[in-house]
Structures are given as structure tokens and as C-alpha cells.
Amino acid sequence: MKHKNFFYYNFLGLKLLFGMLPASMSLYCVLQIIHGISWMLQVVFMQYFFDTIEGGGKSTIELATSLLLMGGAFLFAQIMNGVANCFGQILNRRIGKEANKLIFRSIERQEVIAFESADALDRIHKAIRGSEGVFWVSTTILDILFFYTSYFMMMSWYLFSLTPILSISTIIIFIPNVAAKLLRMVAFEQLENEAAPLRRKFVYYEKCMTDKEYFKETRILGCCSYFKSIHAKLLRILNQLHFRAQLQKEKVNFFINFLTVLAYGGIIFLLVYYVMKGTISVGAFAAVLASLREFYGFMDEVISERFAWAAENVATVKNYLSFIKDADKERKNVRLPEEFEIKLEDVCFSYPQPDEGNGRLFALEHVDLRIPWGQTVALVGENGSGKSTLCNVIAGLYEPTQGLLSYSEVQRDDGRVVEGISAVFQKFCRYKMRLSENITISEVTRRVTEEELRLLCEEVGVSTEWTGGMDCMLGKEFGGTELSGGQWQRIAIARGLFREKKLLILDEPTAAIDALEENNLYRSFQKMCHACTAIIVTHRLASAQIADRIIVMKDGKIVQDGKHEELIAMEGEYKRMYELQKKWYK
Ligand code: ADP
Ligand code: MG
């Protein structure tokens, strides 16, 4: 049953919050109880005041005291209201910080391949939404337990002391209200699940039209109107989903409001009846009548707003809690041995959502490969032949779907991060940070002199003249200098080379750099790869010749393996590609 989940996930949420900040959370509960009592005190002192007036023959001092007490009770309730709310806000911020830490820890522990699957991305988005609401959703139960319950219980006790029937009737009308609200939760859990993938798409298409990365291309190629139409269509579906849920919500609200009005009328009738009969004093009559609005106001607030809101959002907390379970996963790092041989035995790899267009389930098929220590290997092949996938598998980022990967005695196991590897990816990152940070973040603990950094930059053609110094910000986002694609790529290369490594993977590291410069860079790679094993993916066969060995890939398989001279001497994929490229570079 869905509503069983409500209490279950709230309980888990509270367990988490108390675990994070036990003292503050306990203080929050105490404040809520005092807050509840403060509202009740108002009613008691109001009756005292009315009784004092009604009784007649009272001294001015007595009258003034009762008036002061009533005023004091009002003031106290307002102050407690402010204190409890303010403390809640502060606590929310502190909990939010802790909740985020857990999300990041959990993201760190996800397998890299998870980021290739839409489901996994949904999970992350849902978890982030959940982390924003975890405090308010979970503390709703605390507010109900400590603030509202203490207020209602004392009110009931007070009414009971006046006459039992008053107290019982207020409790009876409470029950159908709660039952009706429980029904609402079902609609919202469904909405959350249906809307998450749509919302992700919606945000993505919006990005295609507004984001700097896409903006220029979509405008120049005239795709804006296309994106606008799918964006509008998605918005329509999302709105429909919301509307359906809203309609259901309003129906229930109508029913509840109807009950409340009936109850309100019934209680007033009872009050008049008992005061006529002389069962209760006029003072009590006035106090109850005056606080009845508050009583039903609170009742409506707790059910229609607080509880209903928590019910709508408990699904997001559930998503959050299930995501952060991974934060506790032990992360075992393994270091590459001093000198090692990379060995792939019958390795197959399939993406979580394989590309159906090319009809292949596996991006890598039965790959057997041994790379001895210190070798520089060039990986060549057509687009889509599996070069990048193979790099990611060798780097330990993707776990083989089948087969084994080892670095001498070290096995690539599930969830382990292999240390000692550096890479420059085809889709490299452009960190909007200082130039020096952009390079040194790959090995933050390494102490580096300005001279060393300057030499590295010189080697790969990174110039401080682009920005006016190593400390200058890159990227327009934070007021820095924007660079060209080639300049960003050189920085990515510098970052990859800066890291202390025993295995270096360069996946088309010069795609954005012009052909003339490419040769110089490849010579630098050759120079800088002397103390490690290196795998270089390139589409330029002329550059591949710097390698000790060339591996040719086609349709996810290794089809040729050897030195340039050997490969050129035989008929095959390499020779065919070489002849083709020779024509361009003549
Ligand atoms: P290359 O680097 O040689 O151009 P890739 O290794 O990137 O080739 O891709 C190999 C195959 O895997 C291609 O058929 C491609 O469609 C598929 N592929 C690559 N990335 C993904 C992904 N994230 N999800 C599904 N299929 C993918
Ligand atoms: Mg590639």
C-alpha cells in the first residue's frame, strides 16, 4: 500500500536527520512542543479574562492582571511562532548541506557507465530534488507530533473539562479528514514517476535553445523552431499530468472543506446549547468561540497544507533515500603495480542502452589484447569502431560485460577505482576555473614550481598570452576569457600529462587542433610517454607511426595489430585507410 510508504519513508528520513544533527533535531522537537503549549495558553487566559469581566465586582488590579496575562500569552505564542520557524529555516540549511554531501558521495560511487543510461540520470535528478525537500517533508511528521498534537490534545482536554461531548465531537470530525488526505498521496506518487523523464527531456530541450554550448549551432542551423515545438509539446503533456493530479486534489479538498464547515456549525450549536443550560460559563463560551477559528485553521493547515504537501513530496524523499544508500558503499581503490602488462581476455562490452541504429548489441566483441609495460600503442579505425569504448574499458571506467581485464596481478573488479591512470578524452572538460587550476586539478597534492608548469605548457603549446597569466579565469561564466576549441584541448592535454601516471590514454587528443601543429604535439607525447604505457587513439595514420605498435579496430573487433611497415605491406583495413588518407595529404 502506498500510504504505508508515507510513514515508512518519513521514519527513515527522520532517522537520517537525527543521525546528522541529533542535538539540534531534539531542540527542534522541544521548541515545537513549547510552541503548541503557547497557543493553548492563549485560550486558558482568554477564558480567565472573560470570566473576570463577567463575574463583576472585580478590582481594577484583578482586571488589569487578567488583561496582562492574556496579552502576555498572545505575545508569547507569537514569539514562539517566530523562534520555531526561524530555527526550522536554519536547520533546513544545515541539513541541506549534509544531504548534498551524501548525494555527492553517492555520485562518486556510481559506476561511470551509469552516466550513459537515461534511467540512472533520472535517479540522480530525482535524488537531488529529494535532497531539497528531505528536511521539510520529514519534519512535517515532527510538527504534527509535537506542535499540532500537543495543541490539539490540550485543546481537547480543555474542552473535555468543560463538557466531554464538545471534546469528542471535535475528535470525530478529525478522522474523515485524515482518511481523505491519505487517498491523495497515491495520485502524487504516480505523478512524480511519470513526470521525471519528461521533465529531464524538457530541461534538455530548453538547454538546446538557451545554453551557450548549443545556442550558436541551433540558431545558425535554424533548429530553434524544431526545439520550440517539441519543448511546447512536452510542456503540454507535463501540464496535463499536473492538471489531472490537481483536479483529484481539488475534489478531495472540496469534500474536506464541506466537512469542516459542518463541524464548525455543529460545535457552535453545542456551545450555545451548553451556555443556555448553564453547563459552561460565558467566559468559557467566549474563549472557545474566539479560538475555534484558530482550532479549525490549524486543523486545515495540518491536513490540507502540511500533511498534503508532505504526502505529495514523500516520493522525492524516497528517491533521495534510495540514492544515498550508495554513499555508504566502500570504495576500494587499487594501485597499478610498478610495471604491468595490460591483459584483456575475451572482453565484450555492451552499453546499457545499445545504439540500435547500427544493429550491434556489443560495442566491443571478443577482444583479446596484451600490452606489455611501457609500450606506446596507437588505436586506429573508423568512427564507431569501438576505440573510445576500448579506452574506457582499459581505463577501468567501464566494467566488461563479459571477459577479464587485468593489469598484471591486479584485477579490475566491480566498483574499484584503479589509481595511476591519466587520460585525455575525446569529449574533454572545459573547467571554468583559473588556467593553472585547469591543469593542476588532475594531481592536486603534487607540489609544482612555476618553472615546471611553464615547461609543461610550452611543451603542449598552452600560452599564458591567451589569458594574460596563469591565474586568469577561463570561460565567460565567471567573467574570464573564452578560448577556442583547440586552446581548450591543449589545456586538457596539459592536465592529462600533469597527472602522475603509469598508464596514459589519449583519445583523439588533437581533434580540435590543426594538422600542422598535430605533428609537434605527437612528438611531445612520444617524449612524455617514456615512463609509462600509453594508448593513443588517432584518426590520422601519419601520427600513428610514432607508436611502437598499431591496433586497427572495426565493428568492435581488433582486425589488425602490428607495426606500420608490417601493416602497410599487407592487404587490409589499415592499408585501405592509409591509401585514402595519402590522397588528402599529398
Ligand atoms: P569510436 O571511438 O571508435 O568512434 P565508440 O567507442 O565511441 O567508437 O563507439 C562504439 C560503438 O558504441 C558505436 O556503435 C556507438 O554507437 C556505440 N556507443 C558509443 N557510446 C555509446 C553510448 N553512450 N550508449 C550507447 N551506445 C554507444
Ligand atoms: Mg571515439
What does this structure look like?
This protein is α/β, with parallel strands linked by helices and 586 residues long. Among the domains are: 4-323, Up-down Bundle (ABC transporter transmembrane region fold), CATH 1.20.1560.10; 431-499, no CATH class. The chain has helices at residues 2-20, 22-55, 60-108, 118-162, 164-172, 174-210, 212-220, 224-277, 282-324, 387-394, 435-440, 450-460, 485-498, 515-528, 541-544, 564-568, 573-585, and strands at residues 333-335, 342-349, 364-371, 376-381, 402-407, 410-411, 417-419, 421-424, 503-507, 533-537, 549-554, 557-562. It has a six-stranded mixed β-sheet, sandwiched between helices. The mean pLDDT is 85. It binds adenosine-5'-diphosphate and magnesium ion (MG). Residues 116, 351, 353-355, 358, 363, 381, 383-389 line the site of adenosine-5'-diphosphate (ADP).
